[in-house]
Amino acid sequence: MKKIIQILLVIVIPEIIIFSMIASYNPDIVTTPFDNSKIQRVQRDSFPADHSKFAELQKDFKTGQEVTEACIKCHTERGKEFMKNEHWKWVKKDTNITGEIIELGKANVPNNFCIGVSSNEKLCSKCHAGYGYGGETFDFTDQNNIDCLACHDNSGTYKKGKGGDPAPSVDLKMVAQHIGFPNKENCGSCHYKGGGGNNVKHGDLEVALNSCSREVDVHMNDAVDLQCTECHTTHNHNISGNVYTVSTSNKNRSTCTQCHTTTPHKSVTLNNHFAQIACQTCHIPTYAKVNPTQVDWDWSTAGKLREGEPYHEEREISKDSIWKYGSKHGTGIYAKNLEPDYVWFNGNSDIHTFEDRITESPLVLNRLLGSYDDNIDPADPEHPSKIYPVKIMRGKQIYDYNYKTLIQPHTVGPKGSGAYWSDFDWNESAKSGMKKLGKPYSGKYDFVATESYWLLNHMVSPKEESLTCESCHSRDSRLAKLDGFYLPGRDKNKYIEMGGILFIIFTILGVVGHSTLRILSKKKHI
Amino acid sequence: MKKVYIYRRFERFWHWTQTLIILTLALTGFEIHGSYNLMGFEKAVLIHDNAAYTYMALLVLIFFWLFITGEWRMYMPTKKKIFEQVQYYIHGIFNNEEHPTHKTMFNKFNPLQRATYFGLEFIIIPVMVLSGFMYIYFADSLLGHNGYALEPIAYIHVGGAFVLVGFIIAHVYLTTTGYKPMSAIKAMVTGWEEMSDEEAEVAVRANIQMLMRFSQRKIMNAEGEEDNTLFDESLSHEIDHTNAMMIDFQKKLKESNVGYFKIDINGNYTEVNDVWLELYSTTNIGNPVGKHITLNRTDEDKKSVERIFNKVVTQGKTVTGSLVGRHNSDGTVSYHTISASPIYINNKVAGLEGYIIDKPE
């Protein structure tokens, strides 16, 4: 009895206590995920003045310019502010990889969707925040050309029509009397539709955000209903936020920490990840959750005609992806519920312009800069890299075979103008487009594979759906393609692994052999 | 079969706590490594970290104990009998041969165990703790910016883990090589190890000899004499322990009333302990050191002690339980049993030592 009590006291009870401590202790801390002092929600229903009572707005406006003129009568400085905004010029000054300040934007940077604006302004004017952008004579210095209503219409009835002018059906008087802070429908009227259709370009910005559930977006759903400008804060018409297909430097970004703290999790270990993992990486587990986004655009197959006429066809490849062909556009692949790719990114990018020579295939149009080493280099605290989720858009587009530069094709225009969508002749399209761009064309073209990287920031999922540890810390890691660092759970050294397993196997064999001999010899001795 | 007390309470406590922690660390560690998916990475990391910090605390206790008690000496590798031990495992064990070494409370490990446990407790585990600590520190302080890369640390840690798994397999198997397959494990639980009668006698005698030496050492210290004379070359270093470890056993020795003596090749006493003196002081023998064994004895007794002396010194035999009488000053005779064994120096008999236990009327 005494012996049993002693064993209980010396071994059994201490082990039970120690094991239950080890298995249950959790060093979580109490944290606040939000910093309330940072959050200032716009009071939309208290817009300071009722514009429907203003005498200036009681006219029957004939054109958009007349409305703008009326706006500027009171808002005297706003026009000048807006003309500095990249929504007006479609270029902005930014610092490139060599430190030189350049002007870049939609207007002069090639992409792998519709390739570029130049020579195709008429089509692009649908989304320009001005009236008449497509015309040869568009005056960038005339304030009256600003389209105030595209962003400030709160009636929900404003639409842009031909040449960027208001659509004929719009009642400008009514719209002008119902203006207010931009809401997500205003921003979305252009930003949802980049690339020529809903969600085609970004993959995380689409019409569904206007009214959605928490599962689609924790911020923009019907219950929380954050508007774009609550994160993309705007002062004097300078809107924060970059898209790195047309931005090169780490400034004026919109970030999660505008509202959230840098230690939002209870788990200290998770909070430590903040140093190297962007919030989006875990909290945007999939993108294009409602409607498909385009992931591949092969221009090189365009131009096939049926009985002399362009045609269009599409079919499902799988449950979540569609293959499309059009004589004008070539082949496209659209998909939804996609797992992001992941990159190291330090807020800077290297953008391939029409001047740059092509030295690689696939050609990366906007290389997101950053690496693991960039993060651990204490000499460069300004460039801390984190892992970000991206959509990689792949494509094949026209380039100058001799000059090894990308070509701006002329796509939209009447028959005989060289516009590809009317004439289906790449050579003429290239000639016309490059002439408009003011760059040389050698006369020989080919197609090059290209990639563009689109950071995913929207459609943040509920926390229950965020990535788990195993999403990255496992053999089948989402970060499989990122190298230069050791990731627990993902990485192993094959020699250590093989040596270790062999050591264990030999030990077991030794035990089995030795014990067998012992049993046999025991029998022999008996 | 007899049972001998081998493992003390704290040893059993730390052995099994270490077992629990290492198994927990291995189970969660290989999950973190990506070898399998059992409880999930997050839970595995949490438990692994908790177990690691608990283990650090336990190691502080273990090493404190090992160094304070001097038990660390048991871990020092030795070449003595290592060849015989290897021979035993590859040959003798299959022929029912005796273990070439004996397990006692003061010398628990055979030479192979010494080498293995030395490597384990003083190399592998410190390396694992250090690399593991650097691993946690790396993760805790911003996953970088520390001036060292995780990769080599992780590989050392994983490599060490494989070695430990191999060790556990071999260790568990070798516990079955005791007197009975379960003897060693039972001993680790209860402290009492089952042994054959012969082995038990060796172990008990070694334990008692140690007790006697420590008792004597304490007395000599009290008298202000050099105590290192007690530890001549015939004592192997593994029984050279500190007083602190032995306090409760000294007490037991005194209670057990065992007298110790040592005699040189000429038959002169070189050492006796307090119990010996207590027993003999009834005959006013005085300080016997330097005097011949036949001093103050009757002819009959002279003959019997000389007979024992010759048997041990000239024939190299061990005498146990011989009855010897001693004459008290009031004329009465008391008896004690005497056990003695030869002392070897350079493979030659240099004297004898033994103990006497009073035989009550």
Task: Characterise this structure.
The complex is a heterodimer of chains A (526) and B (361). Chain A is globular and about 110 Å long. Chain A has helices spanning 2-24, 64-74, 78-82, 86-89, 121-124, 148-152, 172-177, 184-191, 228-231, 268-272, 279-283, 372-376, 420-423, 426-437, 469-472, 494-525; strands at 92-95, 101-104, 234-235, 238-239, 293-298, 305-306, 309-310, 312-318, 321-326, 330-335, 341-345, 349-351, 363-364, 366-368, 386-400, 405-406, 445-455. Chain A is an alpha+beta fold. Chain B has 361 residues and is α+β, with helices and mostly antiparallel strands. Chain B folds into 2 domains: 2-195, Fumarate Reductase Cytochrome B subunit (Up-down Bundle); 226-235 and 245-359, PAS domain (Beta-Lactamase, 2-Layer Sandwich), CATH 3.30.450.20. Chain B is built from 10 helices and 7 strands. Chain B has helices at 9-32, 41-69, 82-90, 111-140, 150-174, 183-190, 197-222, 243-256, 274-280, 299-313, and strands spanning 2-5, 192-195, 258-264, 269-272, 319-327, 333-345, 348-359. In chain B, the strands form 2 sheets. Chain B has a 5-stranded antiparallel beta sheet, sandwiched between helices. The two termini of chain B are 31 Å apart. Residues 218-247 of chain B have low confidence and may be disordered. Chains A and B meet through helix 1, helix 10, helix 12 and helix 16 of A and helix 1, helix 2 and helix 5 of B.
